[in-house]
Amino acid sequence: MSTRKPLTHTRVLDAAMTLVDREGLQSLSMRRLGKELGVEAMSLYHHLPGKEGLLDGLAEALANEITSAVDERPASCMADWKSDLRSRCLAARTVVMRHPWTPALFAARQSIPPSMYLYVDQVIALFVDNGFSYQTAHRALHALGSLLFGFAQELFSPPVSGGNLDTQKTQAEFEEMAENLPYLSAMVASEMHQSDEPAMGWCDSQTEFEFTLDLLLDGLERLRD
User: Which residues form the HTH tetR-type domain (predicted)?
Assistant: First the structure.
């Protein structure tokens, strides 16, 4: 008697997400996913209608993960509209950073996942109920979306060199930059710090994201009716 765990829609999507987290969105195919699950690719079509259906399913799963992260925020994060919106963005960013291929997947879909419509409606309500016009809410949605999905970690990751960093060469390049670009080199020297993230090699992308988000929220405050 076979002890193989039966395939389900959820199990297929979970395996697809694990695969893409590990190897990137470009690695995903029905054949590759079938191999990951130990089944023939044709078996997957009983649960998802081909690769496009698989990608739509992944987009919906990511949207659900974002809305769940937002729903799980403590009440203290919602003291006022700005705190509420800020914590929403940070909760969503946590998911995007966990799955850095999220922006590329959402951009390739024909429409946003259905579960995201409620999220968007809640953000619009947050604006309108706190004195913003619908026009400002519309523009703010675009601005916040661009910040959230355009500030993805993968956009700032340096190319893989395939070897150890040549510290002597790097030092020589920095000295040359200091001579020709004094203000840029001074800023780099001032901002250089240790970080677990590879963002641009020397920027803390979380700090930069929050800095930009706070600037945007402060600017929106001035547009309240």
Answer: 6-66
